[in-house]
Structure formats: structure tokens, C-alpha cells
Write a structure and sequence with these properties.
- With about 325 residues, the protein is an alpha/beta fold.
- The protein is built from 13 helices and 11 strands.
- The strands form 2 sheets. Strands 2-1-3-4-5-6 form a 6-stranded parallel β-sheet.
- Helix 10 links the parallel strand 9 and strand 10.
- The longest helix is centred in the N-terminal third of the chain and has 15 residues.
- The chain starts with a strand and ends in a 6-residue tail after the last helix.
């Protein structure tokens, strides 16, 4: 019996695409993967964020390449994440060439960051988002949080004696994150709190930020990293962490990948996202919802012991469960 086929178009970031492909394959699918951008070149990625229209010709050429390479194939599922650069006409053209396929869109980012994706939602058979607020505003958008991969399940087995950091923060340096962390972390370190901080920025984005973004005025190049932390390095740091610090982008309310991975690693979390209280795994012993009025309570939170959560709830956020929902269109939450 032939395997079912998936055309998967998404962002190759931190190897998540490889994990998704492996999980599809484990469930009996063969996968053809394409980047959702025409290039991983830093300049191209930066221009997509700053002025995508300047790349229309390049984007069209890239889409035509995908169409040419897939025209003689028949897919059971066309799965697209975010759809950062493709237009409505392109999706319609792809649907016309894959008439028997089920088309699924997953929004990994908020629609406030990628507003053009809003008009694409009706073109898909099913559309999901990690952002609960977006799902409540748009009827056809179904709620599906992000996931943790199998490697994070092993992190929770590390003993307390191997903990080297009270707080670990690995993130992209969005303006609100940088502004808060630039002030807060030195204050916490002055109290003896051990912090590992790794703020990543695309070089073009960094140049843009220090020129045009007020929060970055006066920032130093040495505060940022221009190469993402590798998967193995990230896992090593997390194994040595008591708690993970995470701030959602100020234009989105969905729980970040970092949040769900912290759940998978069975680590405590410090977050600014109040929406986390709406999730069934929320436990104030494990999760500290930070605001400007309770920063003095972080030290006491770090000293608390992690409290295990229900195993059924824990497994619900695994990549296996996530792919099952994409494949089978299961009802996930509420």
C-alpha cells in the first residue's frame, strides 16, 4: 500500500521543520518540504519583514519553481505554516493543481504580525492558529497551541544538583523584550540570581532597529547574538535551568514555542503572558505571571519546587498530538 503524501511549506527555523517531517513520516506519510520564503539569506529575510513588495519578482519565481516541481505529483495533504509571502492567487493556483488534497493552514504567529494571511484563511479547508485571541475573533480559525518535541521530555529527568542557572532566557530581541530584559536582568543579578541570557537578532534587523526603533537607541552590539543558539546548545542550557524567562511579542497573545517547550521540559516559567491562566496546565507554583508590580516576588518563585502536572494534559502538547490534529482535524481545546 502506497504511503499518503504531504506537501509541507513552512519556515526552516531551529530544525522544527525536520521534527514535523519526522512525525509525519512516523505516522505513515511521505513529505515534500519547501521553505515558505524564497531564500534563507539574511538580507532576503530582513526585506520580507521590512518591505516585502520589493521582492515580488523573486517570490513569484520561487512559487513557479514549486509549481513546476510538484505539478506531476498528487498530494493527500497540503500543509502551509504562516504563508508569509504567497498571495491568494498563488494559493488558488496551487489548489487548482492539487484538487484532491486537503489544504491546511497553521498560523505560527499572530495575524497582527502577518495581516495579509487573514484573507488566505477562507482558501483553506481548515485553518489553525496558536493565538487564542485570533481564534475568538475569526470564526473559521481553530485553536491549536504549539508543541514540544521529544527531546524536551528528557530534560525533566535532570537532577537538581545539575542546575547552574536560576533563570534562562533564549529569545529573539523584539523591542519590548529588549527594553524589559535590559533593565530587569542586572537588577536580579545584583541579588545573586544566576542568569543565562541569549538575545538573537538578524544583522539587517539589528541595523534597522538601532536606526529606527526607539527601544534600541543606545543599545550595544555586544548585547546581541547574530547566530541562533543551536538545538543541542539550547537543550544543554535548559537542562541546567531552574526557570525559563519568556516574553511574548507585544503584538501577539498566543503562547510561544518557548513556553510549550518549558512545559515539555518540566521546568518552571516566568512569563508576561496573562493568557496562560486560561490553559489547563496553569499552576501558580510552576508559572509566574510577571508584571511591573510583582518583580520583587521573582526571587521567592525561583525557590519553589516544580510541581508535576497531569500526564494526560502533558502529552496533549506533544508534537505527536499536534500532528494528529493536523492530520485528523481533531477538536483540541474548548
Amino acid at each position: 500500500m502506497s504511503r499518503k503524501k504531504v506537501l509541507y511549506i513552512g519556515t526552516p527555523i531551529f530544525n522544527y521543520h525536520k521534527k514535523i517531517i519526522s512525525e509525519f513520516e512516523a505516522k505513515g506519510y511521505s513529505v515534500d518540504f519547501y521553505n515558505d520564503r524564497p531564500s534563507e539569506n539574511s538580507f532576503i529575510k530582513g526585506m520580507i519583514k521590512i518591505k516585502k513588495s520589493l521582492l515580488n519578482s523573486l517570490i513569484q519565481k520561487y512559487f513557479d519553481k514549486i509549481m513546476s516541481e510538484t505539478k506531476d505529483k498528487t498530494y493527500d495533504l497540503v500543509f502551509i505554516v504562516n504563508c508569509k509571502v504567497f498571495t491568494s492567487e498563488m494559493i488558488k493556483q496551487l489548489r487548482e493543481s492539487q484538487k484532491s488534497a486537503r489544504f491546511v493552514l497553521y498560523m505560527w504567529d499572530s495575524l497582527t504580525l502577518y495581516p495579509d494571511s487573514r484573507k488566505l484563511i477562507p482558501l483553506f479547508d481548515t485553518a489553525y492558529s496558536f493565538d487564542l485571541d485570533d481564534c475568538e475573533k475569526i470564526e473559521k480559525l481553530k485553536f491549536l497551541p504549539l508543541f514540544y518535541c521529544k527531546e524536551f521530555e528528557q530534560v525533566g529527568q535532570v537532577q537538581d544538583s545539575q542546575i547552574d542557572y536560576d533563570i534562562v532566557s533564549v529569545c529573539t530581541a523584539h523591542p519590548n523584550r529588549y527594553k524589559t530584559m535590559h533593565k530587569l536582568f542586572p537588577e536580579l543579578e545584583s541579588k545573586g540570581i544566576r542568569i543565562f541570557s541569549y538575545m538573537f537578532l538578524n544583522k539587517l534587523q539589528y541595523l534597522y532597529n538601532i536606526t529606527f526603533v526607539p527601544e534600541f537607541k543606545g543599545s550595544k552590539r555586544s548585547e546581541f547574538k547574530f547566530i541562533p543558539l543551536s538545538e543541542s546548545e539550547n537543550l544543554d542550557v535548559l537542562k541546567r535551568a531552574n526557570s525559563v524567562f519568556d516574553m511574548q511579542h507585544n503584538k501577539q497573545s498566543g503562547l510561544t514555542m518557548r513556553t510549550i517547550e518549558t512545559l515539555g521540559a518540566k521546568r518552571k516559567l516566568i512569563t508576561t503572558n496573562r493568557n496562560i491562566k486560561r490553559y489547563e496546565f496553569y499552576n501558580e507554583n510552576n508559572i509566574f505571571v510577571m508584571d511591573e508590580n510583582n518583580l520583587d516576588k521573582i526571587e521567592a518563585f525561583i525557590k519553589r519546587k516544580y510541581e508535576p502536572i497531569n500526564d494526560e494534559v502533558y502529552k496533549k502538547y506533544s508534537i505527536s498530538s499536534w500532528i494528529d490534529t493536523i492530520i485528523n482535524d481533531n477538536k483540541y481545546l474548548k
